[in-house]
Amino acid sequence: MQLVPVATPETPAFDQRISDAEGAAMARATVNLFDRWGLTDAQARTLLGEVSPATYTRWKRGALPRLSVDLKTRLSTLMGIHKALRVLFSDNARAYRWVKTPNKTFGGKTALEVMLGGAITDLMRVRHYLDAERG
């Protein structure tokens, strides 16, 4: 899955690039990914752009809200991180643990700590690092 650029006045609308069905599939996969990463609901909600506790509870039950451009970008970036980790590590358990392993590239912080900054750019920073590592 490629990272989808954020829409600007010069580019086509973002929603035309990721359909609602694709967004919903990414949302379901992301809930499963967060479980594999061992995230708390609060951490998951931060990575999703501070969705409300009630909204995230509904997500986990399969009732997804309409996905905004911001949310689709976050989901795409998270799926890119997951894909990169699966390419880099043949051991799935190691790939899932990586997000909580201190990394000198991030100043000794874990990738999760970087991503919990909450901004899309925090997620993209981790994604770009992993893409560079993949070559």
Notes on the structure:
- This protein has 135 residues and is mainly alpha-helical.
- The chain has one domain (17-134).
- It contains 7 helices and no strands.
- The radius of gyration is 14 Å and the shape is globular.
- Order of H and E elements: HHHHHHH
Please, what is the average pLDDT? Answer: 87
- End-to-end separation in angstroms reads 16 Å
Helical content (DSSP H or I, runs of 4+): 55-70%
The proportion of strand residues reads: under 5%
For the secondary structure, the number of strands is 0
Our Rg estimate from Cα atoms comes to 14 Å
Helix vs. strand class: mainly alpha
The count of domains is 1
- Shape from CA axes? globular
Main sheet record: none
Low-confidence spans: 1-15
Number of helices: 7
Quick description:
The protein has 135 residues and is an all-alpha fold. It contains 7 helices and no strands.
